């Protein structure tokens, strides 16, 4: 896995523990807020710590207009949880695409929401501007 130099990633939310890697097959469900990082580039890469799995990942425009789609991109766990290391627009194996990816505009603010599997567990919500 290639890592961006320190400072190249935008830290978005606090609450995680240690960084580690996981796969879809050994992921434990997330049931608390996590520390999210969006690494700039093409495509942007979305990660979080601790390394655990979510039910849904949704990206919306933080200041929607009537012509804004309901989601910029949304994926949902199917046979596997959504784990860190997601590339924007790429649907991982075992995950279902709900809304196809829309281009992200530079300078526009977006909200990322990670929804846990366990009912009642708080989602993680962060905003960032590419």
TrEMBL record:
Record PROSITE patterns: PROKAR_LIPOPROTEIN
Protein name, per record: Lipoprotein
Origin species: Gemmatirosa kalamazoonensis
